[in-house]
Each structure stands twice: as structure tokens, then as C-alpha cells.
Design brief:
The chain is α/β, with parallel strands linked by helices and 101 residues long. The protein has one domain. Helices cover 21% and strands 17% of the residues. The strands form 2 sheets. It has a 3-stranded parallel sheet, with helices on one face. A two-stranded antiparallel ribbon has the order 3-4.
Amino acid sequence: MRVNVDLHSHSEYSPSVFNVSLEKIAYTAHLKGVDVIGTGDCLFPKWRKFLVENLRETEEGIFQLKRVKQNNIRKVHFVLQTELVFTFGKKGEKGGKGWIL
């Protein structure tokens, strides 16, 4: 069985991301032939609350939208996902944030 996945997405709580919804993510995933997509930022409290309110677990760790307006996105599944970000800078240089090596 072939399953196409994209495990890197962002929520509306990510910097420079706006006007995103689970339905828009599912629609775009459907257009690209993606079967399973990561929710992005699942540890951010407000987004996690939104995920709990709008997704239902269909299998262990696999979710679908509770309410679907468009039938073609009914088959798109979600998995909870977040990411670790490390920004490196050189000692003494401005603009670097995070870890200094």
C-alpha cells in the first residue's frame, strides 16, 4: 500500500503564517495527493485545544476532521506533529538567536 505523507505543516500560531485552517490544509493535501498530513505546532496550547475540538481519532494516533464541508477532503488524515527549531549564530555576530556555538 502506498501512502503519501507530509509531516511538516504549521498552524496559524506560527510566525508569518495566517489564515490557515484544518479544512484548507486538508483541501491542499487532497489536491497534492497527500493522504496523511502533520498538524503542526500540536504542543501550542491554543492550537491543541482547536485540534481537540475539530478532529476525531479514527485509529490510534490518526485523526480526521469532525465536520467536513467538502467530500473530496473526507479521506485526508492528520497526525499530531510539532518541530524543533535551532537557529545558530557565530560568537560575536548580531542577529543570531538560539544556540551559540
